[in-house]
């Protein structure tokens, strides 16, 4: 997903041994290589392999190579990679689960105009 087309600038990287709790909003891409507990709103979200997100995500696109426990609302697409796991409901226009990926929850496939992503205002 992140290699196929141009994505917003990488704004935030949460490192391997980092734990963040709370709420985060970003205009660009957020990459989580550690642990995040809370709510996240960003244009694009990437959860690294072996990493963990607990909470809700709102974005245009989301890629899960790690584990997510919570609901995902991504207007354009959600991709669960071979070692990725999502335990929660997914609202999106396009859902891809690679062989080996795990999805436990409900998926709500909607046209992108029916979903709502509000970018961060300046």
The rounded distance between the terminal residues' Cα atoms is: 27 Å
* Rg over CA atoms: 13 Å
Low-confidence stretches: none
Strand content: over 45%
Number of helices: 0
What would the average pLDDT be, to the nearest integer?
88
Helix content: under 10%
Write down the secondary-structure element order.
Answer: EEEEEEEEEEEEE
Taken from the alpha-carbon principal axes, the silhouette is: globular
Structural class: mainly beta
Number of strands: 13
Q: Biggest β-sheet: count, sense, barrel?
A: 13 strands, parallel
SSE order and pairing:
Elements: E1 10-14, E2 19-25, E3 29-32, E4 35-41, E5 44-47, E6 52-64, E7 67-69, E8 72-80, E9 85-87, E10 90-92, E11 95-97, E12 102-104, E13 107-109
Parallel strand pairs: 1-3, 2-4, 3-5, 4-6, 5-6, 6-7, 6-8, 7-9, 8-10, 8-11, 9-12, 10-13
Q: How would you characterize this protein structure?
A:
The protein is an all-beta fold and 122 residues long. It has no helices and 13 strands. Strands 1, 2, 3, 4, 5, 6, 7, 8, 9, 10, 11, 12 and 13 form a 13-stranded parallel sheet that branches. It is globular and about 30 Å long. It starts with 9 loop residues before the first strand and ends in a 13-residue tail after the last strand. The model has no long low-confidence stretch (mean pLDDT 88).
């Amino acid at each position: 997903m992140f290699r196929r087309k141009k994505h917003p600038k990488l704004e935030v990287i949460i490192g391997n041994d980092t734990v963040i709790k709370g709420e985060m909003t970003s205009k660009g891409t957020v990459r989580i290589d550690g642990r995040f507990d809370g709510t996240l709103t960003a244009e694009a979200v990437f959860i690294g392999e072996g990493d963990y997100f607990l909470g809700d995500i709102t974005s245009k696109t989301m890629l899960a190579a790690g584990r997510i426990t919570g609901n995902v609302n991504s207007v354009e697409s959600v991709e669960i990679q071979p070692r990725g796991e999502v335990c929660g409901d997914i609202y999106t226009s396009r859902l891809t689960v690679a062989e080996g990926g795990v999805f436990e929850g409900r998926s709500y496939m909607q046209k992108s105009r029916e979903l709502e992503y509000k970018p961060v205002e300046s």
